[in-house]
Amino acid sequence: MQLLSLLLLSPALVKAAHSPRQPSCDNQPNPRVPTIWLAGDSTEAPGGGGNGTEGWGQYLQYSFLPSVALVNNSAFAGRSARTFTREGRFDIIASNLKEGDWVVIEFGHNDGGTPPVNATVGDKGRADCPGVEIVQTYPTYLQNAARKFLEKKAKVVLSSMTPTNPWEFGNYSYKPSIFTYYTWLAASELGGPSKGVYFVSHGQYAAQAMKNLGKETVDANYPLDHTHTAPFLADVVAQSFVLGLKCGTGGLQDLVVNATSRLQGAVLGTCVAVNETLPI
Ligand SMILES: *[C@@H]1O[C@H](CO)[C@@H](O)[C@H](O)[C@H]1NC(C)=O
Ligand SMILES: *[C@@H]1O[C@H](CO)[C@@H](O)[C@H](O)[C@H]1NC(C)=O
Ligand SMILES: *[C@@H]1O[C@H](CO)[C@@H](O)[C@H](O)[C@H]1NC(C)=O
Ligand SMILES: *[C@@H]1O[C@H](CO)[C@@H](O)[C@H](O)[C@H]1NC(C)=O
Ligand SMILES: *[C@@H]1O[C@H](CO)[C@@H](O)[C@H](O)[C@H]1NC(C)=O
Ligand SMILES: *[C@@H]1O[C@H](CO)[C@@H](O)[C@H](O)[C@H]1NC(C)=O
């Protein structure tokens, strides 16, 4: 009786209760779902390194229903953490993101500069470039960007760089670059998961998949050089990122369409051991 009178008093409620079901909007961008912003270089960017290669970021969307999360691939070829910062690309993401969004940051391929020699040769990661900018270290750029995103109540995934072709020299061989360690360090110094910052050992997962695929397939999918992947391998590299997510603790994994058991297998392999100094 009380409910009935409530309904009678509130035509809007009555109307809402009887309005027809909305058609499914699964193929339409939904501004109310979280956006997963990707910041990175050509290995992740639309069009990859050109000449028919592709960035893995283009395939990440297939692991999320558009009604659950959207991917904005803002990775840009040729960029380092420093030039991405300097060109305002992190700022563009920061100004567009909303609470609950995720930002995946993955650099390293373009970040190795001249090693420090002295005040004039090499930049030591902190010397002044006269009149242009103050150069920071790689972890500093990552942390500065991450703090901007955290301030806006987004969460951050710091992801380690993809491998160069691990079959390049005949047999399989993968050694993480120093920037993998720096990425881990940046996540650790930011406070890790308790502060909304997660590390994905993407390079390790991608290398594992490339090991499983074998030399012939992997060589054929580095058509240009040892850095840029053909579409097939870019898709595998995206899936290896997703497995890395699923093997961690970040809430982003809950939005993934596939169960971990569907991802683990002959190609992607299984979860890998991590350095327990930093929970991921
Ligand atoms: C890539 O494509 C450009 C033009 O599209 C061509 O000039 C260049 O030689 C190609 N590079 C390689 C390595 O195939
Ligand atoms: C990604 O976001 C930027 C900034 O809002 C926008 O300019 C760009 O068109 C978006 N890209 C896609 C593929 O949605
Ligand atoms: C810096 O190192 C370079 C290369 O070794 C050398 O030529 C130059 O004289 C050094 N400059 C100073 C100020 O020490
Ligand atoms: C590759 O591995 C095989 C088997 O372990 C070995 O016989 C061969 O010498 C290795 N080749 C290179 C280039 O390391
Ligand atoms: C998840 O499943 C979808 C649809 O079944 C598939 O297209 C996609 O490649 C899968 N993603 C991964 C990361 O395996
Ligand atoms: C984890 O990383 C820290 C920092 O680099 C290092 O000191 C420690 O030895 C590592 N632990 C393992 C088990 O690799």
UniProtKB/TrEMBL annotation:
GO terms for molecular function: hydrolase activity. Keywords: Hydrolase, Signal. Pfam families: Lipase_GDSL_2. Residues 1-16 form the signal peptide. Residues 40-184 form the SGNH hydrolase-type esterase domain. It comes from the Eukaryota. InterPro entries: RhgT-like, SGNH_hydro, SGNH_hydro_sf. Belongs to the 'GDSL' lipolytic enzyme family. PANTHER family: PUTATIVE (AFU_ORTHOLOGUE AFUA_2G17250)-RELATED (PTHR43695), RHAMNOGALACTURONAN ACETYLESTERASE (PTHR43695:SF1). This is Rhamnogalacturonan acetylesterase. It comes from Lachnellula occidentalis.
